[in-house]
Design brief:
Elements (H helix, E strand, L loop, with lengths): L2 E4 L11 E5 L5 E10 L6 E8 L2 E8 H10 L8 E5 L8 H6 L2 E2 L9 E7 L7 E9 L8 E12 L3 E5 L9 E8 L11 E8 L2 E2 L5 H10 L9 E5 L10 E2 L7 E7 L3 E12 L6
Antiparallel strand pairs: 1-9, 2-8, 3-6, 3-7, 3-9, 4-5, 4-8, 10-18, 11-17, 12-15, 12-16, 12-18, 13-14, 13-17
Length: 278
């Protein structure tokens, strides 16, 4: 049975401070709803979800988290950021139930928290958080979406490779979000193409505009003004994610940019929690 509860009061909420949302262990967290006033989503910076002081997911700010949610057509609301540990866009109920932030005793987790830096420019910030929780399902794997950030500097317009995305053994990749500025102010991200090559086989051979169009047929709402996405699970089947196993000798993105600049790569890994996991 699900429950909805307010989380412990968030201490030291003030401009320029780092705050911690403590998640009492023993629960399976499906979603955390963070309501904010006196501060913008963009002023909630350097967001880290941590278990036993190990990073599970990281976001530069609340706007990035909202952008990724909008890609999946997840519900959003002004004044609220949602940490979605379940993946409601999956079509199979059993797959959806495999996901969640499971802090039950069998997981060996003693501390669970979300850390956030409040920008110094915030005016009288106020934060409160609520949790949607459920009971652990016996025998179900504890799948987590782990979001990690990487950067690529682009010296000039043209085609280039990103060949250093980590490949943690046993995990898989559900999606790769590539963020780049709109230098020519045409309303479209300056990354015009992103291909995915695995062992020299191209699994995503289409330009960004076409990729976004196809994704929209599957219910996505691509944020084309700031990103292009390689979405392996757009049909709602997590088993279509890219398994990172020993058969992969080379994995790279081959991208085309319309200007120089920096690309922020947000990789959605699917993995389990445990000793030795990344």
């Amino acid at each position: 049975m699900k429950s909805l509860d307010q989380l412990p009061t968030i201490a030291n909420v003030a401009a320029g401070n780092t705050v911690t949302i403590n998640l009492p262990v023993g629960n399976v967290y499906e979603k955390i709803f963070l309501y904010y006033e006196g501060v913008t989503a963009g002023q909630l910076r350097d967001i880290e979800i941590k278990l036993n002081d190990r990073i599970v997911s990281e976001y530069p700010d609340g706007n990035r988290l909202l952008s990724m949610d909008k890609h999946y057509n997840r519900a959003t609301e002004d004044g609220c950021i949602v940490f979605n540990f379940t993946r409601d866009e999956l079509h199979n109920l059993s797959q959806r139930r495999f996901f969640g932030l499971d802090t039950s005793p069998t997981q060996g987790i003693s501390v669970a928290a979300i850390n956030i830096d409040i920008d110094a420019g915030a005016v009288n910030p106020k934060l409160k958080a609520f949790a949607e929780k459920s009971m652990a399902v016996a025998g179900a794997p504890n799948y987590l979406t782990k979001v990690r950030r990487f950067f690529k500097n682009v010296d000039a317009a043209g085609t280039f490779d990103i060949d250093n995305i980590p490949k943690p053994a046993g995990a898989s990749i559900a999606a790769i979000h590539l963020y780049m500025h709109d230098d020519n102010s045409d309303g479209v991200c300056d990354l015009s193409k992103a291909m995915l090559l695995v062992n020299n086989v191209n699994w995503h051979d289409l330009d960004a505009k076409t990729a976004a169009s196809i994704q929209s047929f599957y219910g996505r709402t691509p944020e084309t003004h700031e990103s292009t996405v390689i979405d392996m699970v757009m049909d709602g089947d997590i088993q279509q994610s890219l398994p990172l196993d020993a058969t992969i000798n080379d994995m790279r993105l081959r991208c085309t940019a319309e200007s120089a600049g920096q690309i922020e790569v947000m990789v959605e890994y699917v993995d389990t929690w445990g000793v030795g996991r990344f």
